[in-house]
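ok here's the first one, seq then struct tokens
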Amino acid sequence: MAAPTDRVSASAPVAASRDADARDADARDAQAADRPATRADDPLEDAARLRTALIRVVRRLQSIDVAAGAGFTPAELSLLGAVVRRGPVRSSELAACEGLHPTMASRLVARLAERGLVCRDPAASDGRATLVSATANGHERFAQLRAQRAASLAAALERLPLDERVALESALPALEVLGDLLASLQW
């Protein structure tokens, strides 16, 4: 009699997983039903929906970032990433690319420097300007944080149906171009 019980307990995780998948699908269907019907020819409505969706995703990602980066604020994580990607960069350029007031950027750079993640050196061409660069520790820590954040997002993406994951992957080039375009616009 023990064998049937073992079979049931071994299949319980599979059944629970199927139940969870069904609940997820039901929740997505309910969310879709709650969304207002939109006209395909209303670009403002499409833009509003895209903005709302992106904001929701960014907010969730920021909470993941803060959890993964224990001890870092979202602004510090973003600034560290900008320094790692851009290499030695003037403080003023760093503030501009991050959309920060120069004083705030300077404070964030000082915090990162205290942790040994970035260093500040005078610019050779202009002694008044400061170049900020990531230290070896800064590169390493950012790579760790990036991997943790990517793993968290990958786990969430795995829960999406394959066709939705493919649609997101297909949209990546357009989203990257949109991000560059928005960064270049003067409001």
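and now the second one, same deal
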Amino acid sequence: MFMMKYSLSKLSFILLLFFVTFNSLAAQLFEIRAIELNDKLYQLEIADTNRRKTQGLMYRKTLDQSAGMLFVYNQPGDYRIWMKNTLIPLTVIWLDEQARIIDKKILQPCRSSNCPVSAASKPSKFIIELHPDEFDRYKQGDQLPQILLWNRKSR
């Protein structure tokens, strides 16, 4: 009995350590850029590779109101967001190649294997994920030219 309790406690500790380490490593996978949008400074993690785009904000338990993620694509396309394993709701904003907002939605977390997929009404080149409280700060048609200043080659 004592051995079983000890093993369970040890296993719980190892699992806890894994999740804490995973969350901090997830944040380290991304370059972070300070980008001002609509007179507010955000610390945006840059998702510019397939690996980073696939990881996104999965498994994050919180998101600061001045933090988020910027997905950067090489050309406009039908880019979709899947909230599988995303633990927090997100404001998702799709932008065209001129960094003009073409669509925005608040998406809810999904922990099942059958999560809905969300897309914009037109081809996008950038996607921004922010805290859900940031939804009303942005309107369809707004232009966010600071997004265009991000340049992969400036790393």
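notes on #2: The radius of gyration is 18 Å. The chain has one domain: 31-154.
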